[in-house]
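Structure first, sequence second, as always.
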């Protein structure tokens, strides 16, 4: 029961941490992506996922890493975003990779448009003392895309084999 609960909680907790980190600092620590990859392998083996299935999930992460680093090389996303997308893809697998890319793109577009619109209005006084808010409000500063990547991962995680297996074991 503890293993299943951990499986259900680790991924969402790290996704929320990554999103908050990106919002506040515009960085996503490598430790988050590494932890996601290691925890997937540990949880997948512990939950009895077949080795071939685990390898396919790792291949999915590698494919996403190649794609995401192409986006990073063009300056469209940050390096932390690329690594987070790859680590998330490990958990989601090829079955959900297209949905992840589509969801992250849609949520990222919504986030970007929202921030651009909010930048046109004066920053509320209560936020003037918050460095993250003033940085986010500056025209031309980056968009914390990790929020969209993490949100998309959280939306799709309940559809994954590892989540469904852990949830079924708890019930």
């Amino acid at each position: 029961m503890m293993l299943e609960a951990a499986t259900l909680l680790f991924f969402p907790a790290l996704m929320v941490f990554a999103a908050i980190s990106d919002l506040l600092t515009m960085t996503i620590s490598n430790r988050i992506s590494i932890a996601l990859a290691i925890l997937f392998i540990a949880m997948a083996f512990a939950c009895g996922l077949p080795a071939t299935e685990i390898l396919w999930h790792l291949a999915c992460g590698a494919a996403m890493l190649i794609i995401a680093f192409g986006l990073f090389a063009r300056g469209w996303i940050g390096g932390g975003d690329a690594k987070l997308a790859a680590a998330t893809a490990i958990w989601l697998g090829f079955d959900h990779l297209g949905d992840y890319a589509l969801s992250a793109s849609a949520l990222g577009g919504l986030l970007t448009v929202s921030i651009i619109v909010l930048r046109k209005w004066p920053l509320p006084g209560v936020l003037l003392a918050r460095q993250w808010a003033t940085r986010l409000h500056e025209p031309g500063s980056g968009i914390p895309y990790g929020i969209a990547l993490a949100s998309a991962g959280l939306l799709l995680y309940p559809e994954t084999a590892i989540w469904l297996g852990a949830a079924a074991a708890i019930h």
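Margin note: The longest helix spans residues 94-119.
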